[in-house]
Automatic annotation (TrEMBL):
Superkingdom per UniProt: Bacteria
Residue ranges annotated for the N-acetyltransferase domain, each copy included: 8-175
InterPro entries in UniProt: Acyl_CoA_acyltransferase, GNAT_dom, N-acetyltransferase
Pfam families: Acetyltransf_3 (PF13302)
Gene3D superfamilies: 3.40.630.30
Protein name: GNAT family N-acetyltransferase
Length: 178
């Protein structure tokens, strides 16, 4: 199932997305707020898993395409974190776009569609987002779409004391989104 916004398409993954996705996952700028970049194999495994979940549930991490150019830009979507968090269980919204597409308001545009799908088609009560305290770009997206900053916490998979360990949690319900 494919969804459209004014400038974007949220869709299942294509084989041709794998190469540009691996390239962005290997880019230290794109992965600046993650513990490491990803290998081609890790990147491909993520695509396989994301596509499987999308087919199974009808929601998940969609590949995002720029309508005007047809270019694959990255992903935006909904996900159940694969590890225990202080506020589990939750459904999170997440995004990762390649550098040429930053700063155009694309992540908030796609994220609003993902929230709408979660709330209206899948009756989700609340959606969260979290990111490293240092990742102000991502927090800006959370604020733009109406999410409320709640609490800070230490990410369970990052060693305490490391700069990326401290994270911030945002939450949103259907009537708060904008
Ligand atoms: C976070 C991310 C998805 C934001 O997407 P986006 O489509 O650029 O979002 P916006 O255009 O709304 O910009 C959000 C903020 O990013 C910052 N920003 C924009 N362009 C930027 C650039 N080229 N370089 C650095 N920061 C930039 C600005 O602060 C902007 O806020 P503003 O619009 O109030 O000025 C994107 O930066 C990204 O994919 N980053 C790498 C992966 C990542 O960190 N994902 C989140 C993990 S939780």
């Amino acid at each position: 199932m494919e969804y459209q916004t004014e400038r974007l398409i949220l869709r299942p993954w294509k084989h041709s997305d794998r190469e540009p996705f691996a390239a962005m996952n290997a880019d230290p700028d794109v992965m600046r707020y993650f513990p490491s970049t990803r290998t081609r194999e890790e990147s491909d495994n993520m695509v396989t898993a994301a596509d499987h979940i999308l087919a199974q549930k009808g929601w998940g991490l969609w590949a995002v395409e720029e309508k005007s150019s047809g270019a694959f830009m990255g992903f935006v979507g909904l996900n159940i974190p694969g590890y225990e968090l202080p506020f589990s269980p939750v459904i999170e919204i997440g995004w990762r776009l390649d550098k040429p597409f930053w700063g155009k308001g694309y992540a908030p545009e796609a994220a609003r569609k993902a929230l709408e799908i979660g709330f209206n088609q899948h009756a989700m009560d609340e959606i969260v987002a979290f990111t490293a305290l240092e990742n102000l770009q991502s927090q800006r997206v959370m604020e733009k779409i109406g999410m409320c900053r709640c609490e800070e916490f230490d990410h369970p998979s990052i060693k305490k004391g490391q700069p990326l360990c401290r994270h911030v949690l945002y939450r949103v319900t259907k009537n708060q989104m904008r």
